[in-house]
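Section 5: illustrative case.
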């Protein structure tokens, strides 16, 4: 449709160009490599670590047990997951207030896998200029060979990432050989394929688009920023007016120019394709590649490093010395988040350490409400659903109270032996004389003393559960 002179066309969809960032070298690039190696070491290697004869960390969803080294969690412990989520949330608030997008730039899985895919690009196709040239070149045998090699490598990384992911939920030492014998369940295969594909799609296809358009954290984190939050910024005052410092310029002309030689290297290394010299932008993930690139240029041109650097808005505006940035770490907002973090952490650890390693659910037998036993007593039937959240065999000794005379039967004399990590059901009977339990429901209480097998005299722990007894 023709556009009238007083009309303007606004494009709602802008096709993005593939970004081929140049590989940055320097202090921060090394830090990023280190963090990527550390996070991937945890992700790929931890499932292979054994503890007490089983996988040290295993989220066994079908078995409804989560193992974290010596700690066994059961579904009733989901409350600790809430605590963990709270801890992560406040940890992120605290960390973002101090360090801005340090998480995004170094440790976020999206950044990590994008970076790994970029390493593969770089390894197989070469650096930025070669990649750009290859993309523009027509398809021929060489281009097909290079692309095939790259996608083969990407496939291996994604497949192994998918297998490692599944290995957090199913014993990996059985999973890997079973895979080679085509002996894995559909659910496990789906988990491997799904996570492998997500890695490929997010890390190779979508890349910076995820940070720009999909990540909610990128959107709300600005609410946690203040003027003392660490940001990466170009020093406009020092850099402008920018321009190439040509050899034929006079000393006076050179003196009137800023330190930025307009080499655009800071733009070429940027994985999200922005120009940091245009000011703070929400797309910036804080990866510091532009700092490394610019520092290298400053070294070559003989200007001091730090034209692009980690700083804060306040330091830039109020001309704080760098040392003042550290002093501003202890500000009320940081201390507030820190205090909440400490409280949540202490509560979580204390409750984890003191939690019961046995759970008992009392399930009333609905088939028999009440019956008379051989001794003329009224008897109710219950099923004790016992869930062990321990790596040790435990002994459970139940008792019941609620009437002047009350009897519990169905329990072995020396208590119920509960093997490590099992869920078991034990039927028991509770009886009392008719004069104590007239028609209707009467509250009774079960007490369960339990201890680790062989440690009876040392540590007896106790839990109580309420139940009801139906009278005649
Ligand atoms: S502007 Fe600099 S810090 Fe921000 S994403 Fe680009 S290279 Fe990384
Ligand atoms: S790398 Fe430094 S000198 Fe080069 S354009 Fe960027 S800010 Fe200017």
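Designed sequence:
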């Amino acid at each position: 449709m023709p556009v009238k002179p007083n009309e303007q066309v606004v494009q709602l969809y802008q096709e993005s160009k593939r970004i081929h960032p140049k590989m940055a070298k320097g202090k921060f690039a090394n830090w990023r490599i280190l963090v990527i190696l550390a996070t991937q070491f945890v992700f790929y290697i931890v499932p292979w670590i054994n503890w007490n004869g089983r996988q040290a960390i295993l989220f066994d969803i079908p078995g409804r047990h989560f193992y974290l080294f010596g700690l066994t969690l059961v579904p009733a412990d989901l409350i600790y997951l809430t605590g963990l989520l709270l801890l992560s949330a406040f940890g992120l608030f605290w960390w973002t207030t101090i360090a801005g997008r340090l998480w995004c730039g170094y440790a976020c899985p999206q950044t990590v896998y994008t970076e790994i895919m970029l390493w593969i690009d770089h390894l197989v196709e070469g650096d930025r200029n070669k990649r750009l040239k290859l993309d523009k070149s027509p398809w021929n045998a060489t281009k097909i060979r290079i692309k095939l090699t790259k996608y083969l490598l990407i496939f291996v990384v994604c497949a192994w990432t998918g297998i490692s992911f599944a290995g957090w939920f199913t014993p990996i030492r059985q999973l890997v050989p079973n895979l080679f014998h085509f002996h894995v369940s559909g659910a496990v295969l789906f988990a491997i394929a799904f996570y492998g594909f997500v890695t490929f799609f997010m890390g190779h296809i979508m890349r910076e688009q995820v940070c720009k358009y999909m990540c909610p954290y990128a959107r709300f984190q600005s609410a946690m920023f203040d003027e003392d939050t660490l940001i990466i910024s170009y020093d406009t005052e020092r850099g402008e007016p920018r321009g190439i410092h040509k050899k034929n310029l006079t000393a006076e002309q050179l003196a009137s120019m800023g330190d930025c030689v307009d080499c655009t290297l800071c733009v070429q290394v940027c994985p999200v394709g922005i120009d940091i010299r245009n000011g703070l932008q929400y797309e910036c993930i804080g990866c510091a590649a532009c700092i490394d690139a610019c520092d290298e240029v400053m070294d070559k041109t003989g200007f001091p490093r730090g034209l692009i650097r980690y700083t804060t808005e306040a330091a830039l505006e109020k001309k704080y010395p760098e040392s003042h940035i550290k002093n501003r770490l202890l500000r009320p907002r940081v201390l507030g988040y820190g205090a909440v973090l400490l409280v949540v952490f202490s509560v979580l650890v204390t409750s984890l350490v003191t939690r019961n390693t046995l759970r008992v659910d009392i399930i009333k037998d609905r088939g028999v409400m009440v019956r008379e036993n051989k001794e003329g007593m009224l008897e109710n039937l219950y099923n004790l659903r016992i869930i062990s959240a321990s790596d040790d065999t435990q002994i459970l000794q139940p008792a019941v109270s609620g009437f002047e005379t009350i009897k519990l039967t169905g329990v072995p004399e020396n208590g119920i032996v509960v093997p490590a990590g099992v869920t078991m059901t034990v039927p028991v009977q509770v009886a009392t004389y008719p004069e104590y339990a007239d028609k209707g429901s009467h509250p009774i209480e079960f007490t369960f003393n339990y201890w680790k097998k062989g440690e009876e005299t040392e540590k007896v722990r106790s839990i109580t559960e309420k139940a009801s007894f139906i009278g005649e």
